[in-house]
Structures
1.
Amino acid sequence: MILPPFLLHLPHSVEEALMIAGDCGGDFDFLAGGTDLLPNYKNRLNARSHVIGLSRISELADPFHRLSDGGVAIGAMARLKEIEGDDGARRSLPGLIEAISQIATPLVRQSATLGGNLLLETRCYYFNQGYDWRASKGFCMKAEGDVCLVVPQKEICYAIYAGDSAPVLMTLGASYRLIGFDGTRDVPAADFYQPDGIRKNELRKGEILTEVRLPPEALVARSGYMKLRLRDSFDFPDMGVAASLSLDGDRISDLRIAVTAVSMTPQLFTEVTTPLQGRVIDRALIDVVAAEIQRRSQPVRNVMFPPQYRKRMVGVYTRRLLTRLAGLS
């Protein structure tokens, strides 16, 4: 399939990009690596008349640099392959590197960006199809229609968030720096995503995700990511588990667990992990935590694997990941 016609703009600064966006009357998309947006355009999924490419804005492309508070920042336009190969990122953020290394294929990661992965369009097998397929089934509310075909009603879209890097960044306490018409603001990753497949997140129209910021404690935490998918490359997750663990001896000083691709947002289970501070981490405790995360996960039926299987794998992957991070394997 070929792309629909649109006018491509290539600004050299964030200010210029915002100025162009303001002139487009809302009929635009920002373009990062294009590995998600352009395939959707080929399927005629909510294509716009104007596309504002961010590839020439050099200030957004730094893959890893230190902040004055001891934390680090990663530019939103940093290519995934650049982050994956950065020595500082590999030493300090093993969980993020593990997630990035499982995104799509090495060739896709040469083009795809961190910001693009964080802002992925939500996915559903009623949505991610060609126009003729969608027409034969009956259009959904995410494109052309007004009814969700996963859970039939007209209020909430049940397309899932299927990104790999966001759950890791949530467990590490990251925040997203956004610049728009009203200025600059920082939003915690844990508060950014919204439980609606159309609304998706807190990004306002015209805002640009410029960088991801991580606090100093994220650089010393044990972190990891495990991904369930049909094929061992290329595929989006059908479920993924991220965790960040800090220990004081054999006792938990901080534990955070997030699950992706089971709901409209990546889910951070602080209500399960916060009470565990000060507890000795052992296999028995890990079994209890994994069972509770599994119990609270409610996958919806809109990807390849059925909900019951994905729910079971939430517990299995949580147990495996925590066992590895605790050094008990």
Note: DSSP finds 13 helices and twelve strands in the chain.
2.
Amino acid sequence: MKRNFSISLKNRLALSYAVFISLALGVLILLVNLFTGIIFENLIRDNITARRNEIVSIVGEQYQSGRRRFDTESLEAMGRYFAGQGFIVTLEDEAGNLVWDARSHSGHHPHLPVGPPANMRRSMGRQGGRPGSPGMSPYSERIPVNIDGRRVGTVSIETLAPIFYSTPEAMFLSSLNRILFIVWIVLTLLTITISIFLSRTIAKPILQAGSAARRIAQVYSKNALQFGDSPGIRIKERYRTREIAELSESINNLAEELEEAERRQRQLTSDIAHELRTPLASLQGTLEAMIDGVYPSDPQRLESCHEEILRLTRLVEDLNLLSGLEWKNINLNKTDFDLSKMLYHIAEQWKSAVMEKGLELDLQLREMPVHADYDRLKQVFINILSNAVKFTEQGSITIKTESACTSGVNENPRQPEWLISISDTGIGIPEEDLPHIFERFYRSDKSRNRSTGGAGIGLSIAAAIVAAHGGTITASSNITEGGLAGGTVFLISLPN
């Protein structure tokens, strides 16, 4: 099997951080270098402009107004000085005649330098300029010389290049470039180190979550659990990053729910075995006694066996019904009827039992047209009302109906619901058992026997039937006027 190449999250994060930050630093340093060069070039341009203006001013000072000519001896000294600075000066009079040229006079004076000095040529070389290249091409500018508002001549100033650095400036730029390069190397190494640390910090909880999920999958795989041991897999570390903390908490919640589901499954198996064992043991004992001649085969004994068989049949049918409802395999035979009339008829059936126990039955019914399965809903309310009568020794049982729109429970009037509450003042259900009473074979009172507690799936069936109709069923403690819990309230909502 061909295995696809993949990179771990830790390495991916480290590589991403390192590449991104290194590129960002490189771009930043490049921009710093670029802007520094631009600033220096502007500074050099300003300096050259100032020097050219200075040359024109000095040349103008050499003009002798009385004799109407320039002092050539002074121009020669001046030209030598400016040539040493990299400026080649040529002077013409007002008629355009050549007065002085640094190049022509350099032939009479071999010691007179023409062009930029060696230090400037080296600094130009550091910039990448070479003689004959565009960066070293001559640059000339003609500037008039005015005396008292009258042009007396024209100065031509030529430089070997428009921009050149002095030795200190070139050395400064070179040092700055080296420093920036070293800083980039150091910051890149530091970035790689921090990236590795951060990637490990981020990837560690994710790897722990993945490891915990794999262990949970292995433990709860087929035939993995033995002897009912609970593995107790948890991520014990507490993380301050919200998303990672939520991931860790989700894994822990998943482990808890799976453990609880496993416990319930074992409890369900035990409960089913118990519910089947009791009638089967009774049947076996009675039949063996009849076979051995201990009990006579009279109608009374046969009726007892028949009752146990019916009990087993009802249990199997209830389990089959519950399974079908949970898997949505039961077809509901829905019709239109008034739910309040159904509740009234059910209450009439239990009226004698209520009166025998000295209880009060309070009916607060209003017309409730519904489109539902009459027999299934009847089974729901009979189950709840029978439990209310069975576990209420004094007080009252109240059946109340109302619309969710008028009661304020549902804020959307476009989807009205009917609410049916059945409350009693009986022994009630402990708060810790309320979330579980709709589970299969769950009994809040573990001491109840089969004659009083039933099989423990009646409320599970009721919840499944209500859910199949698109409604909800909840249970809560019945708070009396004195603020004490006295009994239970079942609240059922059905779509209108």
Note: The longest helix spans residues 9-61.
3.
Amino acid sequence: MSYKVSATCLKFSTLVMGLLIWLAGLSQAKKVPPPVWPEMDAFLLLNQKTLGNNLVAMTWKEGKIVYQKNFEKEAGDFNGKTQMEIGHASEWLTAALVMTYVDEGKLSLDDKVSKYIPIFATYMKSYITIRNCLTNTTGIQADAIGALKILQKSKFATLEDEVNSFASKREIQANPGMEVYYSHVGFNIAGRVLEIIAKKNFDRLMQDRIIHPLKMRGTSFTDESGGATNPSAGALSTPNDYLNFLAMLLDSGKFEGKRVLSEKSVQEMETLQFTELPVKSIPKGWEGWHTGLGDWINGNVICNLNLNGNWAYIDKCRKYAAILFVKNPTAEPRKEIYQRFQQTADARIGGNCE
């Protein structure tokens, strides 16, 4: 009797083991790679001479990557996990961090900067608001766009020192909210305001509120050379990480079912700001785009303005996100390349969004 029971148990165990193996195989079978887009592959190859030998292109829709391609000079050189400087794509992250404080009622976009940094009132800059900081409308003297392309490292030891110098040493070129002038100044001021509110450094705040919730493990604003944190252009990130950020925005502030930003804050970031103002300075080729909060908007498309070869955007009508990140472009990438990249993705995604 005992032998029969043991034999039955053995058969049952074998059956269970077989089912587990079958289920594991089924699970693996579901992990299919993103579909091939021959037209996008051909486009990237055609423009590889300009974009350089190391690039990653990725597209996200309905909770998954629907296209991914990377070119590498050597195997392992450049892929979705490669950390790199992302330049002024950092501004979008900074604006999102600011909005977490707006969500909590600890900050208002229309608060005066001088409320938190009194030195701005001392130097006749008391009317600048947080909204001005996130929309390039502070009116403070700014560096030329050519300088911004290489303005990654700060000559200051701390963000506090740099922002205080904006107050005391830079002239007001226009009254706040009177013209749009593309600049790093406002975003660094906003970052310093957050440090004062939270009594923590900017990078720590970004880690706690944006980077960790979005599983952006390869992203940091820490200046490894020991200089000041640069909220406008100082982030290191990876293509995979930045796509997580875009996916959160595309899902109205949620990532993997957890809320990072309120839907209202995402809508505010993606709302045109100061559309009636003259645009006095904008990177060449991007005329016609208008400022949101930390981003730039043209119709259904919301993006960061490319200054160093990296471009990220979301299409609110077709409901997809895409990035084209390059390590070292061999020439200054033209706007036409990014337009064609977007048009190729649009055609593949489909949808009537004219």
Note: Residues 1-6, 19-24, 26-30 have pLDDT under 50 and may be disordered.
4.
Amino acid sequence: MDTPLAVALDLDWDDLEPEQDALSTVGAKLVRRDQLEDAQLGRVVALLTEGIDVTGDEMRRYPNLKIVSEFATGYDAVDLDAARELGVAVTNVGGYCTEEVADHTLALALTLIRRLDSLREQAREGRWTYVDLGSVRRSADSIWGVVGFGRIGRAVARRAAAFGFKVWACDPQLSEHEIGAQGAEPVTLDALLRNADVVSIHAARTGRDDRMLDRRRLALLKPSAYLISVARGAFVDEDALADALDAGELAGAALDVLMDEPPDRTDRLLNHPRTVVTPHAAWYSDSARAELRARGVGAVVDVLSGRQPADLVPELR
């Protein structure tokens, strides 16, 4: 009998030995997408991905496909309707980087609020007496608005509260009681945008909320406010954000996610003097990477062993 194949569609680690070792326990072999031959399509039982689009047509290429394992928290790139129709399991690795993303969110915000980039350059220039401090608000006098109050949003709220911020939150999936029980003030999105000094986005992408922060909503932000985007690039109208920053209608923005990654080197937000951009790295720590890889391939091993994976996405349970 031919050895079943698991295809790494876009896993970009040089060393895939841990995944191969795990798959060998169930008699499967791991191959990269560019190594797969047409004659082997019938042997493919699993697709491993970090976020590349997995459409219904892609799944139908493999008549014996059993699972699509998303090595990420979000799984909006996988066609769940097609997976359900074809009887293909879809898994993700939710919660593996909650603490890391929350830490990164605070680091980005504090870099802007405390004007660390500017102060670093002034120190390098020898400016210790005539320092340009600009406008710096005290945390205890400020409101932190959390958009999306799931695991990461709540972890950010706890950190922001520890710094003295008053925390407001909006999440259409939660009741006011559920938000209030976590110590945050429940508000509408528009009210949050009008009043918050820092707004951080932690919503899960469904496709219905793309450009949630469009030109109208960005205009609600105070000129002294900061926007922190660490969820999905699709939530923010990037042209409108760049225009707002150009016009001084927003104090600054910090972005770990963009619509196009990597962006063109001439990208307005990448090069704007009022932005801090990091390369989709908020998730990273040594521990988070190890958990991501172990759970991602572990789901495949579960399915090939006839077990329901613990990380099956909610829509397919």
Note: DSSP finds twelve helices and twelve strands in the chain.
